[in-house]
Amino acid sequence: MSPASRAESAATRDRLLEAAERLFAERGADAVSMREIARSAGARNVIAGQYWFGDKAGLIRALLNKHTPEVEARRHALLDAYESTSGAGGLHMLVAALVHPLGAKLDQGIAGAGYLRTVSDLLTRPVPSVIEPLGSDDPGGSLRRWSALVEPLLAPDAVAMHRRFLTVRFVVVEVALRSQSGKTDHALFLSHLIDVAAGQLTAPLSESTLRLRRQRLSQANVQS
């Protein structure tokens, strides 16, 4: 393949990703077909998406891979700053490390909006997909590091009830919704989101929840 042909092929792939970002931002990943993406990208072949990405899952993976390194770098830098205080920054500093790398996407137009809505869609499916959008299987990933730093600050029962995942999903969904709002000044929104997410992480479990949890554990022990 000549250099010109390689450049044209790379440009086609980039256009497909850009079209996916735009359409996913507008309608959500599950509502858009690969053929629609190819047509929107101006591809001469309506199966160009399959050629480059195999299927929609492959395209979504490529979209996430395009944005994830920036999110990871930002979050690791914020976690480095937290650890440099020996934890003196407290829970709000840790929650800010969760929120701000996603909040930065709000200033990246339709590309950022497409990424945010895609992650939100994956996390709010009946069976949430967490490995690809969150990198939860990566031992060196920023979210696994964040989760480990947050755990000692939470009650053991809150940890067992997946409070961290619920908070991550809440933050992702709220930032994704914000990306659809048309608003451009996000400082107050992000600051308040940090407050609410911190409160969600540390909210005490009610006596009713604790009682039901004990019953569930007791039933599980009997069945085993």
TrEMBL record:
- Keywords assigned: DNA-binding, Transcription, Transcription regulation
Q: Which GO terms describe its molecular function?
A: DNA-binding transcription factor activity; transcription cis-regulatory region binding
Recorded hits in InterPro entries, A to Z, give: Homeodomain-like_sf, HTH-type_TetR-like_transc_reg, HTH_TetR
Where does this protein bind DNA?
A: 33-52
Tell me yes or no: is Acetylation among this UniProt entry's keywords.
no
- Note the PANTHER family from the entry: HTH-TYPE TRANSCRIPTIONAL REGULATOR BETI, HTH-TYPE TRANSCRIPTIONAL REGULATOR RUTR
Q: What is this protein called?
A: HTH tetR-type domain-containing protein
Highest lineage ranks of the organism?
Answer: Bacteria, Bacillati, Actinomycetota, Actinomycetes, Mycobacteriales
